[in-house]
Amino acid sequence: MTNTSLVLGGARSGKSRHAEMLARRHGERLHYIATAESMGDAEMAARIARHRADRGSDWITHEAPFALVECLEALERENAPVVVLDCLTLWLSNLLLAERDIDAESARLADFVARCPYRLIMVSNEVGLSIVPDNALARRFRDAAGILNQRIAAVSAEVVFMAAGLPLHLKSAS
Fold this sequence. Notes:
The protein is built from 6 helices and 7 strands; from the N terminus they run E-H-E-H-E-H-E-H-H-E-H-E-E. By secondary structure, the chain is α/β, with parallel strands linked by helices.
């Protein structure tokens, strides 16, 4: 469990930048797992392109909008030294909209994180700090994200909350 970090925060809080900075401290062969899909959304496509450009060419990118645990296991077989997973809440959105079993997939992910043999830095949004959403789908997502974040935080060695670009260490690797 000493290899894993969870970086939480709101939109534009500096989560991805912080995760990438942590990764650069721990290795030179950097892997990035992207869970976002643009699916005809021009704004999301622009975000994805901006993130990729910001990272630079020294990252090996893997796309895993659904098969996240399989991707993590494949990187284990490749002896990947450092992996950034960005982000858990987009992965959760994909599962929710595809009507997948979120609890089962979350349990599989937590099991992998608990035994992860390489440096894994995960990014997730903290979505429960705002008003109660006005529709059932949004409330279901908010609740599922909170449960997923708790589950992953419990098995992570380090948990950092980002606010205004500043890290607040909630749980430190010992």
